[in-house]
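Long-time lurker, first post. I've been practising inverse folding by hand and with some scripts of my own, and I keep getting stuck on stretches where the structure tokens seem ambiguous. Below is the full token string for one chain I'm working on. Before anyone asks, I'm not after the true native sequence, just a reasonable design that respects the backbone. If someone could post their per-position residues I'd love to compare against what I wrote down in my notebook.
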């Protein structure tokens, strides 16, 4: 079997549609780019999953199989893997050393649960697509951005947002998936389907999450080698305060997801327990 990689077939928000329509066979999608289409995925964006993206991705896949798959939100898309970037954190031009300092800052914030996190932090959201983050920060149109450590290198934040503020429990994640046109998959021979299914699912989720961990490590290395960049870890007091603030977000998302018919509270508890177990109990 061979595959051909093509770029620029559609903007990021349309990636799910081009797979559904058969324009592409496989694509990587961000669930919150299609508001209302994948409601259960908000549970995977919640605070509290700080640490390994690999552990997160495996736990997410197991939760999907047990709680979300039967809801059939992806419909004619075959889900090959579920994953997210690493912990969302704050990067800014001025050094932030406490949650209190974030209040009233102008931050570029993504969609989904990240927007709720921005509100809980008291920040003013600047709505620009990720490719425009550098120019937005360089022009001082925003004070900072919520993104993973990977962005220090991938979006050149070492140049325009030299200071990073890390909440060890994680501010948020972004639910993403690798999906395939279901008809295209079912057109393959049974032998090929069986071979691919050995890779798809938990294994591909694990592999993808491990790559995100590597990207974060590369971003941290870029921060450390830049010379003028800093990394501040939230104090114990701020970690406790954020844990308290997070509960309101978690409760709201669980309540909203429960309205879809999914046992959202059980799904969240299972997801968290799997993640903690895979992370070594931390």
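-- Answer (accepted) --
I ran through it position by position. Result:
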């Amino acid at each position: 079997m061979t595959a051909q990689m093509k770029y620029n077939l559609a903007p990021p928000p349309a990636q799910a549609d081009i797979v559904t329509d058969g324009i592409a066979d496989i694509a990587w999608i961000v669930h919150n780019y299609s508001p209302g289409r994948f409601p259960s995925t908000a549970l995977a964006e919640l605070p509290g999953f700080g640490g390994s993206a690999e552990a997160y991705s495996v736990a997410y896949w197991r939760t999907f199989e047990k709680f979300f798959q039967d809801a059939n939100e992806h419909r004619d898309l075959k889900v090959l893997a579920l994953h997210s970037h690493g912990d969302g954190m704050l990067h800014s031009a001025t050094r932030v050393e406490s949650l209190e300092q974030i209040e009233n800052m102008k931050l570029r914030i993504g969609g989904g649960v990240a927007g709720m996190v921005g509100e809980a932090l008291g920040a003013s959201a600047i709505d620009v697509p990720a490719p425009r983050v550098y120019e937005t920060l360089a022009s001082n149109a925003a004070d900072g951005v919520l993104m993973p450590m990977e962005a220090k290198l991938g979006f050149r934040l070492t140049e325009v947002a030299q200071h990073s503020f890390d909440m060890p429990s994680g501010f948020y994640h972004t639910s993403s998936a690798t999906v395939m046109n279901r008809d295209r998959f079912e057109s393959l021979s049974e032998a090929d389907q069986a071979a691919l299914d050995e890779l798809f699912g938990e294994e591909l989720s694990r592999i993808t999450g491990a790559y995100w961990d590597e990207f974060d490590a590369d971003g941290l290395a870029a921060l450390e080698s830049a010379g003028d960049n800093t990394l501040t870890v939230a104090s114990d007091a701020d970690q406790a305060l954020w844990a308290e603030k997070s509960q309101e977000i978690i409760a709201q998302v669980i309540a909203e997801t429960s309205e879809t018919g999914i046992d959202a509270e059980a799904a969240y508890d299972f997801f968290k327990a799997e993640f903690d177990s895979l992370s070594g109990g931390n």
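A couple of notes from the structure itself: The domain at 89-171+228-270 is CATH 3.40.190.170 (D-Maltodextrin-Binding Protein; domain 2). The mean pLDDT is 95. Happy to go over any region you disagree with.
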